[in-house]
Amino acid sequence: MPAKAPQVTEAIAASLAAIGVATQVELQPDRPAYAREVGAKRIGDMAIFDSTPYGSFRVLNDKVSATTQALWWQGHDDPALELLVQRANAAVAEPEREDAYGRCLAWLRHTPPWLYLFHPIDVCAAGRAIAPPALDCRGVLQFVGR
Questions:
Q1: Looking at the DSSP assignment, which residues form a beta bridge with residue 134?
Q2: Which of 21, 68, 114, 129 is most exposed by smallest CB count within 10 Å?
Q3: What's the number of CA atoms in the CB half-sphere (13 Å) around residue 63?
Q4: What is the distance between the alpha carbons of residues 21 and 13, in angstroms, rounded to a whole number?
């Protein structure tokens, strides 16, 4: 399982218990075996997996898209999202690609197929005197001068 998965699992189970939802946790300490189980769709109701750096394309096509139904796809099917993913995959120019993948991610934020968790490794802050930072199509934080 991904690093910190047992701790994340414990926190989710505690949160679910607080609202009356019972859980049964099965841990798979062998990461390659875990990946094979996820790929074979033997995960029960929930599994924890991490994403790939620079991975909007891979997350959408390997894990979310019902069109590709790649190894990590777990059954999510949203025709509106599929259209957005197709447009993003077809985009060539960087501004068009950034906009298209941004629309996919915005759609997923409002219609999430899974529970999103965030564990920051690096945190940065910027003063109001500079332009707001932006993420490019690869997920790289860009600081642009005013």
A1: 142
A2: 129
A3: 18
A4: 8
